[in-house]
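Duplicate of earlier report; Putative S-adenosylmethionine-dependent methyltransferase input re-posted below.
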Amino acid sequence: MRFLERPEQGTYLNNKKFRLFGRGLEGKVKYQFAADQISHIPTVDVIGDFGCGNGESTEFLQKYLQSNFNLNPFMLAADISGNDIKVAAQRRMKNVRFFTQDLSEPIDLQPNTHLDGAVFIEVVEHIKPPDLAKKAIAHIAEVLDPNHGIMIVSSPNRTCLSKDRYRSYNQFHAQEFNQQEFSEILTEAGLKIEQTFGQIQIPNSVNQTLDIVRMLANKIPSKRQQFGLLMSLLIRLVQPSYDILPLKDGYQPKYFVAVCTKK
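Output:
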């Protein structure tokens, strides 16, 4: 599987806005939400963190499960980048195996090993070509425990964040989905959606204002990044909370977060 080029290590960490494991406060809250969902599984022995990068998300997830729920599952943490996995391994975390995994290929676990929980957060939007996203999710679904395993998947909502179907304001995003597209890709990959939540939910009336910004961005492509930042600022002013909540009528979330089980 091929990914868009990522920012150099530390690009976000040198910015006060992105001090928390490089994925920002939005990402941190998604991992807290994932841990909360995982804590309700009857048996929590093995958890997978796919797209783990340099291991910061894995370390955060492990510590959060330990400190808040007294859970200490074995963590399988994978990424396409061998360099990131080398950095992750230097953390010398206990009860964790970091490994390189191309999710266009099946995941080779030990016989009779299944994941009680799997986390696929802030990853699908970076996969290219886009049709490989479904294959990646399907390969993770294949190793979920068929009885009680859950998978938490997130995606930006292109209704809020994209100029059109293919061009995101974020230069590192290969694709984004609206709710119907996000649901289709999950179910076609072999998952049953238990519930879809939203993070940073924006009233439709505000989205109409954002449409004006999108229109200006289409007319001035050279200012794409600046318009993206302006949209983020407007969204932040309207909805300062990062909480992940059930979807609300009359609102569009900045991000979808789905809790899924195996079909």
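The helical segments are 24-38, 56-69, 82-89, 132-142, 158-161, 179-188, 204-219, 224-238.

Merging into the original ticket.
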